[in-house]
Amino acid sequence: MTKRLRATFIIACHSILAISLMACSADTHKQANSYPVPVIVGKVQKVQERETVFVSGTVSTPDSPAEVSFLVSGKVIFVGPREGDYVKRGQRLASIDPIDYQLALTTATKQADMARIAFERAEDEHRRMKMLFDSKSLAPNDYEKYKATYESDRQQYEQAIAQEKISRKRLTDAELHSPVNGFISKRSIEPGETASPGRPVFEIVELDTVEANVGVPETDIHLVKIGQKVFITIPAFPKQAFEGTVRIINVSADPGTRTYMTRIRVPNPGHVIRIGMVAEAKIVGDQKISMMTLPGEAIVRDDQGATMVFIYFPKQQRVYSKRVKIGRFRGTEVEIKEGLSGDESIVIAGQDHLLDGMSVTIAPPSSEKASDKQRESAQ
Q: Quick check: 200 and 188 in contact, CB under 8 A?
């Protein structure tokens, strides 16, 4: 077979294949139009509710954690609570070897006693010499010698007393006590280690009240006010709800997220909310707004990723797509901000198999969906 004949044969085969594919496509399109797709349609729900801001953040403490450290150095001989333990104010947390401080206190006490005895003698002598000086029986120069001795012994006694107090405090500081009631969140000392003055060895957090730190978008910050009630949910406790109060609204936005840091104080008497947990906040405003909602499953996306719905036209018994702008989800419903007037019949089930302009047939709602709608209406 020559090259020319071979080329002619290949072109003919390609033409036959293309015609066959077009025929198949036409048959498929014809079949799609011949068999209407069953769908379920519903109406847009028009609701009124208070302006609401939904934000999320993390749980922290209203005040900085209490960092506890030794004021003296020494070998650690006792460490009590571990992370997660609850401690009371004044409870002993750790101790260092007190022998050196006990010896120092004993020495300081003896020196103070000796200084006291010397001072008392000097004071008694000074008192007698002053009586003689006042009665002109003692020369001024001799009196000044006794007075200088008295002043020197008094200063030595005061210094000895001060040194004894310092030694006693150092012995007391050999034991570390909790300054607050709370939970140990960090322990960084173990028996046998050497404690250094000022190095934090415990971190204690109070959980009676916690704060949810959330970022409020610039578009919603006008809806948030100090003292406003907030409903808090914690994903770690899906069956519990908490109520808080807005305590602080920052005056400057985070440059990266363009959100305003807002602190929400949340009572936590059961200590179930822990530091670092994710918190979801629902801040309810004072004004009511009207909105339209649809079931979340009614929303589909086109080839460009835009959100849209299928609208049912009864006369043609066909559906056509319409792009919509959605807002926040409210349970199973999603807010429709733009794109619908509110009178359309929207496909809420079966839309995943639809194409623009496709013929459909209306199926009755399933018993499960119907019961769900009834429950929602009842609520």
A: yes
Structure tokens at 264: 């929400």
What is the spatial distance between Cα 208 and Cα 147, in angstroms, rounded to a whole number?
62
CATH of domain 53-63+207-288: 2.40.30.170
Q: Going by DSSP bridges, is the β-strand pair 92-96/194-195 parallel, antiparallel, or unpaired?
A: unpaired
Q: pTM score > 0.70 for this model? A: no
Q: Where are the alpha helices (DSSP H) in 74-139?
A: 99-134
The residue-averaged pLDDT of 181-209 equals: 94
Alpha-carbon distances of 256 from 107, 160, 253, 260, rounded to whole Å: 62, 61, 9, 11
Among 69-83, 139-153, 190-204, 364-378, the range scoring the smallest mean pLDDT is 364-378
The three-state secondary structure class of 272 is: coil
Tokens in use for 316? 């043609």
- Parallel, antiparallel, or unpaired: how do β-strands 37-43 and 259-267 relate? unpaired
| CATH number for region 36-47+290-378 | 2.40.420.20
Tally of CB atoms within 10 A around 210: 26
CB 209 within 8 A of CB 272: no
**Nearest CA-CA partner of 259 in 55, 51, 50, 52:** 55
Domain residue limits, the chain = 36-47+290-378, 53-63+207-288, 67-97+174-205, 98-171
CA distance 254 to 261: 8
Per the document, the length of the chain is: 379
CATH number of 98-171: 1.10.287
- Per the prediction, the chain carries an average pLDDT of 84
Largest CA distance in the chain: 156
Pairing of strands 360-362, 278-295: unpaired
CA distance 58 to 66: 20
CATH number among 2.40.50.100, 3.40.1370.10, 1.10.10.10, 3.40.50.300, domain 67-97+174-205? 2.40.50.100
